[in-house]
Design goal:
Largest sheet of chain A: 2 strands, antiparallel
Order of helices and strands of chain A: HHHHEEHHHHHHH
CATH class of the largest domain in chain C: Alpha Beta
Largest sheet of chain C: 5 strands, parallel
Order of helices and strands of chain C: HEHEHEHEHEHEHEHEHEHEHHHEEEH
Largest interface: B-C, 49 and 49 residues
CATH class of chain A: Mainly Alpha
Distance between the termini of chain C: 64 Å
Number of helices of chain C: 14
CATH architecture of the largest domain in chain C: 3-Layer(aba) Sandwich
Number of domains of chain C: 2
Oligomer: heterotrimer
Strand content of chain A: under 5%
Number of strands of chain C: 13
Strand content of chain C: 15-25%
CATH architecture of chain A: Orthogonal Bundle
Radius of gyration of chain C: 24 Å
Number of helices of chain A: 11
Chain lengths: 293, 343, 425
């Protein structure tokens, strides 16, 4: 029994990692309706910036807010320079631009910092909490905690602040929002900046566990997309729940279903997603889209 | 003073009646007129047939791959550009076609042209099977499901190693040119690919001019309106899926003939993303887009290397972004705009 | 109908036109020439002149396997050193072209063909990865181009007899796992082993070699878990393996995942197996991020000197490597084992080139298959390069090492696995 719970805890740990990036993905989706395939790479790049600052002698607790600030600016800048020019273009064009961005950022990180893995300071203490034979890693608990906090902050932001209302308006219908006096461009840049910050946070949380290299996030991205799809791309609570479900399901299936084993466990999120989408096409917590002809 | 037989004086043409035609417009009319198009087609045909006799085997190999990718992109275009669905796992059908051919040729079960038919039929069936549940999914969610399928294929191929050769892959002998042709192996493979490409392009061309094509275009423009007009969405969308999968499978079969080696590493999710990027860059919704996209997919990564050997990805990523800025509707779209003749 | 007739007409016209035009073409002018006279008469001299040798290699410089893209830096440093300070190889300067194949076999084929047909290289030196190299080897052998010192430890490069132009270099994975198997049989005869392996040719080669080597003994594999290179983390697999309570853990992972596995092992205080780490991940650069205190007593095997290991700080070969790497590849981290690997295999190639009887492709092929006790300065003392008829494995010797304090400590003797276990089948 303890082993089973341990596997569940393990799954929650993986799930928290997926959820952290999924939150960033969900932010961009809320604003522009597209999935930013370069989100993971942007997060990775931010993590490298943090690493560089720490490597140069800065304390981790100073490097962290500085990196978040830089990431915010970076995200807003990317929106201005790279996304704005193709704003009116077909959706797929924007998606392919993010693909180009993915390739570029990944190669740039490898060029600047090489592909050798680097260790990243862990803000959470080493060791684990031992409850009834089950180990609760402090690092994992830390990630879960931060993810919950970010999820809460985003939820409150969207539901209860004027800024959040403005963002939701822009996401819903940019033209109407503009007519209502909302500075759409500014909102979009803000949204991308926020998403980049969330991504940076995700990277900084994940790097101590997975070790920092340019391919840190490329594996996580797929699972983050799965998590967001399952939970509903536009709901912060949804993506977190989705992430946890994906993590736990995948780990348990890989551990206990012999036929699946550790190599085919990637199929488990797929099956779950298909089943959920067939029954509820907008994801568990998502808002159904109304099609106007 | 006029003599008896007066010829009617033709009124001088009033300059004001003939509208001014700008040089650009004149050039566009010239380039898109019927005689121009037939000449262009003729030159293209000659070039395509002559090419393998001129170029070294390596270039022919590259051109052959362009033809292979063009067929795959033709399929993806049908799905994404014409019926408005999306697939981030198109590479999976390509892989299935490639593996089906490889497995059959590895065991020497059938002559190689038959493997093409098997790959086509298998992929058509699978595409149809996938197309049915895909009806319930839209846009992003369909993209994610297809992405997951594309991802799942690799470990799946490795699992059934006794059939697929597992992680090590399968090496198969490439089709040999028949003695009477006097062709070199690379030329023979090129002509095989050219034949397959020509036939598939002709098929799709005819398809698009038929009732099916009109239905697909209607669906792309506005699904609801199309449905109201009597287009059976379910049928046509599934049909598009099946056809696009079949074309990808055919491309995969020819790929195996040309490369002579399949392994799970040859068909990662990167292939699917590359194909999608290829068709978007080439131009969705036009057959020439498939060709432009194939040229992009084949040549741009190598060119990126020539520019920056250490980190080719930097150039490649930048190029994708820049191309999308310059031509949001792809090269074909850009060409169409440049050659647009005002009525 | 008119349309069809027109198309048929155009095609026929094209064919008729093409035939005579075929007379002017780039083809046929692609043979590099051959040795005119003497004992090497008729052998190919493409890519080699009295003053230069042109070589080509393929690596994943982009994509998930791009960590291996660091290797060419070490190779280049050595070639630059030889060209600039030693006057080249027997007076011939080496020109080395590196192409990116992103670990995708079709790209490898394309780049190999480019190197052979367009760049007209003398030989393909270092094609990285088993699937990419497998995609190329039929072509290389058909074209009679040496595919020398393939950068993978798959056993097939040595066991195969149909591809005389292709040869591996590093100790193959099967040989290495035999060393571990023997050591376990001698020192822990009833070991219960848990295995974590990368689910590809590399991981499976190790696993199969190990499984065969322990067959019939008291050493048993009681749990195995695999992972994909695209997985973000191996923590779930490690957690599952910990449940088996095995007393030995065979870790078949590549660097990033090696660090993750070591960290997971260290974190789990209830599971403390003997941790055997495969040589691919045995660099100090993999252990350091985990924290030295967490990786004590990890066992591995090595065949060349680890540049991050302080025991070689005063070794003249190590000092030369580090100095020249700094000089010719400034910015490249000398402690990265990939750079050291590149340097070492480049040295081995140069020695092989120097030993060619004929300066031709055939000469290189014969030389690479008849090396006798070749020594390379960055190889461990006692590790030699040997090939011959029936022996297609250049390096088959490794030495066990244990991690204590902040460095590896070699123990036992260098094991020549060919002498010890017989040739790999």
């Amino acid at each position: 029994m303890a082993e089973f719970i341990q596997q569940v805890v393990q799954g929650l740990g993986s799930g928290a990692i997926y959820a952290s990036l999924a939150l960033a993905l969900s932010l961009i989706y809320r604003f522009t309706g597209i999935v930013n395939l370069a989100q993971g790479e942007m997060a990775m790049f931010s993590t490298y910036i943090a690493w560089q600052l720490v490597h140069a002698g800065m304390s981790f607790w100073l490097a962290l807010p500085l990196t978040l600030l830089i990431s915010f600016a970076g995200g807003a800048l990317i929106e201005r320079i790279i996304i704005r020019p193709v704003e009116g273009a077909p959706e797929l064009t924007i998606v392919i631009v993010t693909v180009g961005l993915f390739v570029f950022v990944n190669a740039a990180a490898g060029f600047i910092w090489s592909f050798l893995i680097k260790s990243f300071p862990n803000p959470f203490p080493d060791g684990a909490l031992n409850v009834g034979g089950v180990q609760f890693d402090f690092g994992t608990l830390g990630v879960l905690g931060v993810v919950a906090v970010v999820m809460g902050v985003l939820y409150l932001l969207f539901q209860y602040t004027k800024l959040g209302l403005g963002m939701r308006a822009v996401a819903q219908d940019p033209a109407s929002a503009r007519l209502a006096g909302i500075r759409v461009g500014r909102m979009l840049a803000l949204g991308w900046g926020l998403a980049a910050t969330a991504g940076a946070l995700s990277g900084i949380l994940v790097a101590p566990l997975l070790f920092l290299d340019p391919n840190l996030m490329s594996g996580v991205l797929i699972y983050a997309i799965a998590a967001a799809t399952l939970g509903g791309f536009d709901s912060p609570i949804g993506v977190v729940v989705g992430g946890l479900i994906v993590g736990v399901a995948e780990t348990l299936a890989g551990a206990y279903i012999g036929f699946i084993g550790s190599d085919l466990k990637i199929g488990v999120p797929l099956v779950i997603i298909i089943v959920v989408l067939l029954l509820r096409p907008q994801g568990l917590f998502g808002r159904p889209t109304v099609e106007r002809a | 003073m006029t003599t008896g037989r007066e010829t009617t004086r033709r009124t001088a043409p009033a300059e004001a009646d003939t509208p001014y035609v700008s040089p650009r417009e004149r050039a566009a009319r010239l380039l898109t007129g019927r005689p121009a198009r037939w000449t262009f087609a003729a030159v293209l045909a000659v070039a395509l047939i002559y090419a393998p006799f001129y170029f070294v085997p390596f270039r022919n190999f590259q051109l052959t791959l362009v033809l292979v990718y063009a067929v795959a992109l033709l399929g993806l275009n049908l799905l994404v550009g014409y019926s408005g669905q999306i697939s981030l796992g198109h590479g999976a059908f390509f892989a299935i076609g490639a593996y089906a051919t490889a497995i059959l040729m590895y065991r020497g079960l059938v002559p190689y042209p038959v493997t093409l038919v098997v790959a086509a039929v298998l992929c058509f069936a699978l595409g149809f099977a996938l197309g049915v549940p895909a009806l319930r999914l839209r846009g992003l969610y369909l993209a994610v499901v297809t992405l997951s399928i594309g991802l799942f294929l690799q470990p799946f191929l490795k699992r059934f190693g006794s059939l697929t050769g597992g992680a090590m892959g399968l090496t198969i002998p490439k089709p040999e040119p028949p003695a009477w042709s006097g062709l070199a192996p690379d030329q023979w493979l090129y002509f095989l690919a050219l034949l397959v490409a020509a036939v598939t392009f002709a098929l799709v061309w005819c398809l698009m001019r038929s009732r099916v094509g009109r239905a697909l275009l209607a669906i792309r423009e506005n699904e609801t309106a199309a449905e109201v007009m009597g287009v059976r969405l379910a049928f046509y969308k599934t049909f598009a899926f099946a056809w696009s999968a079949m074309l990808a499978g055919i491309a995969g079969a020819v790929y195996t003939w040309v490369i002579g080696f399949v392994s799970p590493d040859s068909f990662t999710i990167v292939l699917s993303i590359t194909l999608l990027a290829g068709i978007v860059v080439g131009g969705l919704g036009s057959m020439s887009g498939a060709v432009f996209g194939a040229l992009f997919v084949e040549f741009v990564p190598s060119v990126s290397q020539d520019v920056n050997e250490a980190a080719p990805g930097i150039i490649f990523g930048l190029l994708i972004i820049v191309v999308m800025f310059a031509a949001p509707t792809g090269f074909a779209g850009l060409l169409r705009r440049l050659l647009a003749v005002r009525k | 109908m008119r349309t069809t007739t027109r198309w048929v007409g155009i095609t026929l016209a094209g064919v008729l036109l093409a035939a005579p035009l075929a007379a002017c073409s780039q083809r046929g002018a692609n043979n590099g020439g051959s040795e005119a006279s003497g004992p090497c008469k008729g052998q190919q001299t493409t890519g080699i002149t009295k003053t230069s040798i042109k070589l080509g290699g393929t690596y994943p410089l982009s994509g998930p396997a791009s960590a291996y893209g660091e290797i060419p830096k070490g190779v280049r440093a050595y070639f630059d050193y030889v060209n600039k300070e030693k006057g080249g190889v027997n007076g011939r300067k080496i020109q080395w072209i590196v192409r990116d194949d992103a670990y995708q076999p079709p790209k490898s084929v394309e780049e190999a063909r480019r190197l052979v047909e367009q760049d007209k290289v003398f030989a393909l030196f270092q094609t990285l990865g088993t699937p990419p190299s497998t995609a190329i080897w039929d072509y290389a052998n058909q074209q009679k181009v040496p595919q020398i010192y393939v950068a993978t430890g798959a056993s097939k490069w040595g066991t195969d007899t149909k591809h005389p132009w292709t040869i591996g270099w590093q100790p193959n994975y099967v040989a290495e796992s035999r060393i571990y198997a023997k050591w376990l049989k001698d020192n822990k005869p009833n070991a219960k082993v848990a295995v974590l392996y990368q689910n590809d040719d590399y991981g499976q080669d190790y696993l199969n070699g190990f499984t065969k080597a322990i067959a019939g003994s008291g050493v048993k594999i009681i749990a195995k878990q695999s992972y994909e290179v695209t997985d973000p983390s191996v923590a779930p697999q490690m957690s599952k393996l910990a449940e088996s309570k095995a007393d030995t853990f065979f870790d078949i992972t590549t660097p990033k995942f090696g660090s993750q596995a070591l960290a997971a092992d260290a974190k789990d205080t209830s599971w403390n197996p003997l941790h055997i780490l495969n040589s691919v991940s045995a660099s100090v650069t993999v252990l350091k991020p985990v924290g030295f205190s967490h990786v004590q007593n990890v066992v591995s095997a090595a065949y060349f000197k680890d540049p991050a290991d302080p025991q070689w700080a005063d070794d003249p070969a190590m000092k030369l490597y580090k100095a020249k790497l700094k000089q010719y590849q400034p910015g490249a981290d000398p402690e990265d084992q990939f750079h050291a690997y590149g340097w070492t295999v480049a040295e081995s190639l140069v020695k092989t080139l120097e030993s060619m009887k004929c300066p031709t492709r055939e000469g290189l092929r014969d030389a690479m298959r008849s090396q006798h006790d070749q020594t390379d300065d960055m190889l461990l003392p006692g590790v030699l390069v040997n090939t011959g008829p029936g022996d297609g494995f250049p390096i088959e010797s490794m030495q066990l090492e244990r991690f204590k304090g902040s460095r590896w400590h070699l123990f036992d003797k260098v094991v020549d696995t060919r002498k010890e276990f017989g040739p790999v089948q």
